[in-house]
Amino acid sequence: MQKLLQLPVNAVNIVKGVQGVTQGQEEALSPVLTPDSGPQNWYSAVQPEELRHLRSGGTEDRSALEEGLNSVQTQPLRHDDLKEMLDSNKDSLKLEAMKRIVAMIARGKNASDLFPAVVKNVACKNIEVKKLVYVYLVRYAEEQQDLALLSISTFQRGLKDPNQLIRASALRVLSSIRVTIIVPIMMLAIKEAASDMSPYVRKTAAHAIPKLHSLDPEQKDQLIEVIEKLLADKTTLVAGSVVMAFEEVCPDRIDLIHKNYRKLCNLLIDVEEWGQVVIINMLTRYARTQFLNPNINESLLEENSEKAFYASDDEEEEDKKAEPATLAKRKPYVMDPDHRLLLRNTKPLLQSRNAAVVMAVAQLYFHLAPKAEVGIIAKALVRLMRSHSEVQYVVLQNVATMSIKRRGMFEPYLKSFYIRSTDPTQIKVLKLEVLTNLANETNISTILREFQTYIKSMDKDFVAASIQAIGRCATNIGEVRDTCLNGLVQLLSNRDELVVAESVVVIKKLLQMQPEQHSDIIKHMAKLIDNIQVPMARASILWLIGEYCEHVPKIAPDVLRKMAKSFTNEEDIVKLQIINLAAKLYLTNSKQSKLLTQYVLNLAKYDQNYDIRDRARFIRQLIVPTDKSGALSKYAKKLFLALKPAPVLESPFKDRDHFQLGSLSHLLNAKAAGYQELPNWPESAPDPSVRNVEIPDWSKCSSRKDRKEKKVEKPFYSDSEGESGPTESADSESDSGSGSASASGSDESGSGSESEESGEETESDEEEEDEEEEKKKRKKLDKTKAKKQCIINFDQFDMNKITSVFSQTLAPSGSIKMYELLHRIKGEGLAVEYCFSRQPFSPEPNMVAVQIQFTNNTNSETKNLHIEDPRLQSGMRIREFAEIDVLAAGESVTVVMGIDFCDSTQAANFQLCTHTRKFFVSIQPPVGELMTPAFLTENDFKKEQGKLMGMNEILEKLTLGEKCVNEHVIVERVTATANLSRVPCGSDKECRFAGKTVSSGCLVLVTVTTKEGGGAQLTVNCEKMLIGTMLVKDILQALSQ
Amino acid sequence: MPNHPVPVPSSVLAALKNKTIHLSAAKMIHSLFLVNASGDIFLEKHWKSVVSRSVCDYFFEALERATEPENVPPVIPTPHHYLINVLRHRIYFVAVIQSEVPPLFVIEFLHRVVDTFQDYFGVCTEAAIKDNVVVVYELLEEMLDNGFPLATESNILKELIKPPTILRTVVNTITGSTNVGEQLPTGQLSVVPWRRTGVKYTNNEAYFDVIEEIDAIIDKSGSTITAEIQGVIDACVKLTGMPDLTLSFMNPRLLDDVSFHPCVRFKRWEAERILSFIPPDGNFRLLSYHVSSQNLVAIPVYVKHNISFREGSSQGRFELTLGPKQTMGKAVESVLVSSQLPRGVLNANLNPSQGTYTFDPVTKLLSWDVGKINPQKLPSLKGSMSLQAGASKPDENPTINIQFKIQQLAISGLKVNRLDMYGEKYKPFKGIKYMTKAGKFQVRT
């Protein structure tokens, strides 16, 4: 069966070969076969023959045919039969011929001489013939440039076709023909297609850009213009392809991305998976040029404290501890909301089924996220390890690099890196690398136990790697060095030469680090020399004894004596080390070893190996003083017994992270062609306003009517509303998310996508036929909508402002802020806002009171408003408001509910239900709302503050904002940020505030000390360090505005 | 976008200065070679200029160096190219790359190619590929454009190129009609690109298989060193029109580490722990998940073993008994035990209480097909092994690999609560099946 598809061609050739004898003359007479002459008949005679092969598959005479084939193939093929078929009128014959030609191409056979015959069929009606002709054309056009030009007009015609799919495929083939002459035509076609109405054609245009660029790099400038235009495209279909083109043509034109950055972030989730990878990689680079290093405060600590981070739980805590200390030293770091946007929008992609996407997100987090957040990628990466072994290989390489920098991240998954006997060796070795990197004082005993089973494996390469891994653990972790050494010494009695040799080598390295303490091991190894036969191991032992002969002064000469005896029977490397040992002993202990050395040197002098003879001669000259010996021999001792540096056993993956993770260059640890360096973080952030989009195009998606009109371009999940304007930070994540998800869900299920399909068909037709009319229509629509839009815009801006306020807790003067719980568009007319009323919640004093205002904007009444199904973090509780029976049209009502946030800023998620719908909403408190005022006297304040020193005190220097001119403003800002009360104070340079957390009643003390020239110092004392740290950030921001 | 100047931050300019601008880096996949087990290139496809097949010599070199077929490094650098290969069904898929590209991108794509072939031809063997070389070529042509993935969704591809069936091959040969769809790939334009349009069935059915595999390492003494569950939900959905499905679970908390088919709405899952999706037509993997917390993983079988060699004797003892454990009352079936015995073992003379065993004296692979475990009469395999005369006792201890199946059980306890359909009027037939299998289940001795 295997060669079945080759058969048709072979069959013909063989038949031809057989018949050639009789038909040779005829062929010679008519080299150009005409359709109606004899050969046609000849061919039709062959046809059934082949069909038989085609259908019946393996025929008995196949082997015979194949043998015949080999002899035929040595002669140049002429393919007259195929030409014949291509010239026929029947599509079926043409198709048959094309299939055989494609089969030839697939096998790598040359079919270029058929070019003229094939290219004629480029306009064939049969769609499969046409496709196969395209395949042929793209393969051979480069070699037959002149003839290829014949086909161009067909594609040019195709570019004007009313059907978008035909336009796209014409452009695709045209741009794939690598013929320099048509560059201008291609350029024109790409430019035109880039402004096509159909996003699919635009996508094809984006694909064509790199093709043209590689054909003629001169076109770069023009192509960049097209890229710029396509980057502005709002459809998910185009996004991936154009970024791909960008990466290939002008990856350094970061400036083109600014305006499209937010859009790309928002569309990302709906882009097809391959596009996602490319976009994420590009955005990683972009972010490195535009944002500040989120770990800037830790980067100083990092080097010193690398060893300090062990368990992941500890890590976070330590981060928090480290923060206040460093914050004091440096300027406070505030993450750019756009930076946050990128992190937030890529996070769900960690759950993609595509390993490349997961890896792309993982590297993005590794390179861009604050240290505390990087941890989330570990789980996803560990999941990938279940995939095919190639995927596992690449992922492990990256994990190995990451685990050096961020060990804590993978520690919980230690056991996922345990090795199975069925793993391929290369995977085993990588897992071993990761395990070694993860080893620390706490887990070393588990790891060593695991390593012990590995040493018994049958895979000897792997055993050797395991022994090396033990050696590395021993150098890195001082506590286990002796245990490891003992373990390795035991291995010296292993039967396997490789194991012994590897152990000796590793022991040698370990001993070099502190030879004084281990003279007993050196003695032990000296004894082993009687038993160990592996030359490498013997050599290593001899070197050790020679090097440290001062530590074993009695044994060393004895070993030399034994070696001198067996010298002639030793392997060459051992002989060399015997000479070395002799030389060193001669220099340190010439009394005992002088004669022995001379004896050894004499033996060596007549050795068969010239290396050994040379060495002996050289050493004799050097160490044995004679009249002739030169100046060098004075320094013999220094030469031989110089202090040799201990070898450093470090991971081969160390510092590999200067390559972008997940890249080919990282994998190879060498710069691959076309690798884009990952830039270093900038010292100060470039202007973030470059990413602002000038004209917020709200009309696109905000109203239902518009949505329908724009259906084609509407992404599946992502809400394009967030396209412009600084988007909310992660803290308010679920807020917009849940709402839109339920909305889009109902959309899809309700209207059904079939109508969408037809809608788009008609639309595209319309658009082409009478664009003019379309434009007019749009204008009209715009006018009618103008008023409505105005309102919507206002709403949207309002919401935006609120959300940004929400996340950053900027304090606008005094009044209580309202937050949006449910936008009236998402809520289908029901708008819900909430605020923290700062009143004690009477039913349960340890709950935060949340005041909720419902407004019914519909024309009908809404009934049974209540809360259902709260989803809370453990310990959190909710006290629901009493159900609102009826809310009449246009009415508003305000209720109060209580939430016990457990003194954390975790969101409380619940469903808001009406009689018809359920909405998912969440309330997330700013940290300042988690407290109530506490009334203290100045003395009490000082007393309490005295109790909350050390770790519980956070000090921060700041520069007051321009408007913070007097005490009054400071008080106003602080109290707006946090629900605190002022504590009377004697000094006018100080403002003091006190409060306690609602849930647990911990005291929160805030002091602001102003200094000359706008400087100030902020002190927060709170037992709950998390609360304290967050509060510091919020107040800092409020005051430095 | 108008051509007004955009201010370029100074840091960007600084970054630009350090950059060497390279010309024409042809990215992504340049060519693809398929190599069979005996080292012959039997198919080649180029998406850009032709790369000579001699580039594969570097691959053959690596192949020779590797002791086992799966030990060929997935990425092989050569002077002008990089070769990225995957091994599936004893065929190496070797992609030629010219410049920087995420290696996983290529690897993942190659696996997708194999999956597509399997989907189309039932198997992905050299013979199947050679038999369908034209379809293969057409597929590859659609899957990559200029080396960048274009259409990789099986639903779209099937719209473009119809999978070959015996009937269609016969009909095509007689009538001269084609495999290429007359339709244009409208699916690519849709907002749900993974679903064919205009799907029609007379019987509307949706089947979901919850399949869990247990990966475990059990140590000598029988305690679990590591155990995790890899679960998938595979679906076969044949529903008319554009159905919108929701699938909810009794205990969604189990699913904290999941990956989805692109059709699943992320946000709905995040908020409600409900799978909401418009399914592709036909077979697809809806979800895969990972339960790694060890206390959740029940180990359904135990092994008692005694494999020992005595110093100085040319005989070794072999005893193995299997038993069920934590199976929730379900039967453990299709049990297969295999073990790589030490090189020194010449032959094994064993006596199984049930099933059959084989020992290959060349590869030293012992395998025992046990069948079903009867809790009343535990299966055992006992006997002796003969060692090379004079050879010393082997250092290594063999590991025992176990395969088994348990029907109607998801060992993690995951249970589907309900499946609802919106968007269409008819009542579909719905079916859920559970199964537990052994993944990489190893017992160290």
TrEMBL record, chain A:
Gene Ontology terms: biological process: intracellular protein transport; vesicle-mediated transport
Region (Disordered): 700-782
Record membrane topology: Peripheral membrane protein
Subcellular location: Cytoplasmic vesicle, Clathrin-coated vesicle membrane; Golgi apparatus
Keywords tagged on the record: Cytoplasmic vesicle, Golgi apparatus, Membrane, Phosphoprotein, Protein transport, Transport
SUPFAM superfamilies membership: ARM repeat
Keyword Protein transport applies: yes
SMART domains per UniProt: AP3B1_C
Biased segments, Basic and acidic residues type: 703-716
Compositionally skewed regions (Low complexity) per UniProt: 735-753
Residue stretches in coiled coil: none
GO cellular component: AP-3 adaptor complex; clathrin-coated vesicle membrane; Golgi apparatus
Domain AP-3 complex subunit beta C-terminal, first and last residues per copy: 777-906
Keyword Membrane among UniProt keywords: yes
Biased composition (Acidic residues): 754-773
Signal peptide coordinates: none
Protein family membership: Belongs to the adaptor complexes large subunit family.
Task of the protein: Subunit of non-clathrin- and clathrin-associated adaptor protein complex 3 (AP-3) that plays a role in protein sorting in the late-Golgi/trans-Golgi network (TGN) and/or endosomes. The AP complexes mediate both the recruitment of clathrin to membranes and the recognition of sorting signals within the cytosolic tails of transmembrane cargo molecules. AP-3 appears to be involved in the sorting of a subset of transmembrane proteins targeted to lysosomes and lysosome-related organelles.
PANTHER family reported for this sequence: ADAPTOR COMPLEX SUBUNIT BETA FAMILY MEMBER
Protein name: AP-3 complex subunit beta
Organism for this UniProt entry: Cyprinus carpio carpio
UniProtKB/TrEMBL annotation, chain B:
Domain (MHD) ranges: 203-444
Keyword Protein transport: yes
InterPro entries the record matches: Adaptor_comp_med_subunit (IPR050431), AP2_Mu_C_sf (IPR036168), AP_mu_sigma_su (IPR022775), Clathrin_mu (IPR001392), Clathrin_mu_CS (IPR018240), Longin-like_dom_sf (IPR011012), MHD (IPR028565)
Coarse class of the protein's main subcellular location: Golgi
Alphabetical list of PROSITE patterns matching this protein: CLAT_ADAPTOR_M_1 (PS00990), CLAT_ADAPTOR_M_2 (PS00991), MHD (PS51072)
Domain of life, per lineage: Eukaryota
Keyword presence, Protein transport: yes
Membrane topology: Peripheral membrane protein
Record localization: Golgi apparatus; Cytoplasmic vesicle membrane
GO biological process: intracellular protein transport; vesicle-mediated transport
GO CC terms: clathrin adaptor complex; cytoplasmic vesicle membrane; Golgi apparatus
CDD domains with a match to the protein in the record: AP-3_Mu3B_Cterm, AP3_Mu_N
Keyword tags: Cytoplasmic vesicle, Golgi apparatus, Membrane, Protein transport, Transport
UniProt family annotation: Belongs to the adaptor complexes medium subunit family.
Full protein name: AP-3 complex subunit mu-2
Organism: Cyprinus carpio carpio
